[in-house]
């Protein structure tokens, strides 16, 4: 099969719609269930490239949670501690494989953005991972294979209409790619840059201590950025993206957006948030929304009289600004990656507020000296790798 007709394009009025192989060869995918749409396939193919490269770069199973052609989360299969299990809604008695750990991290870091995601997995989907997916709101999945039990579990989602795509793991695309805009065809060589430790050798700050675990996080940041709509920045800690800022015209707005997501990730681990007294009949999406409001500036949306009763068994105390600041001050060891150079030191100032200790960016700004000086003031380690990773 070298062509697959789709229901419609990005919007219902955009017909006809299809995916096909222009050279007449076979499509490298098989739809095992459901009817994926145009945007589903865009997310699936970008997500598959991301997790395949993460696996190659780290040697660990990888997962990503994609939404509207940018990752909402990406991670490798490092084990979850008890706190992460709690904030990701993974019960203590659930056994997790490395791949399941990767998906729990990718889906859980920014649960608001991951709602209704398209999932990509680097390895065959096992039953443990499928059971996690079973309980999340998701549009579909792409993976190189599925165990029989995993496939049965996934086929039960969305009343049997869950989108399940199998990708040929050995498929290699042509080295030149094309797209059309306004009836005009664009052509470029594929971005085949290999992201490995060799890109992390140019340390430009006074502090040059760069452990291997941090190098791995830097590679996770860079590979995630490679498939994130630009401008983009990515905060990473312990094998997972914890804040992604995409598509902003100003880089500092990306840094602020991603930083606020990273802050939320840490705030969700505060005992005051972990101990919120939710009613038993409140589902995960409503809990996620309530937590997002509770830790944000619009906390009275869930604490006002007449509102908290619908969510909690008792009225929680306000999570004050000073309490949040004190908790956030404990964060450190975070990696910040950028798909292009930082033009001003305000990005570094914002990053420091979210516990960033390490930065990887291309460099090349006329203000590099000012940006590096700012990193030195915070005793950060900064790598300038000379590689831009714009993605559009």
Q: What overall form do the CA principal axes indicate?
A: globular
Number of helices: 14
CATH level-1 class of the largest domain:
Alpha Beta
Secondary structure category = alpha/beta
Report, as a whole number of angstroms, the end-to-end distance: 28 Å
Sequence stretches where pLDDT stays below 50 over 5 or more residues: none
List the domain count as a whole number: 3
Question: Topology as H/E string?
Answer: EEEHEEHHHEHEHEEEHEEHHHHHEHEHE
Largest sheet: 6 strands, mixed
CATH superfamily of the largest domain: AICAR transformylase, duplication domain
CATH-derived topology of the largest domain:
Cytidine Deaminase, domain 2
Beta-strand proportion: 15-25%
* Proportion in helices: 25-40%
Under the CATH scheme, the architecture of the largest domain is 3-Layer(aba) Sandwich
Short description:
The protein has 392 residues and is α/β, with parallel strands linked by helices. It has helices at residues 38-58, 82-87, 98-108, 111-114, 127-134, 148-155, 212-226, 251-267, 271-274, 284-294, 300-303, 321-328, 346-352, 368-377, and strands spanning 3-5, 18-20, 29-33, 62-67, 70-76, 117-121, 138-143, 163-167, 176-181, 184-189, 232-237, 240-246, 334-338, 356-361, 381-384.
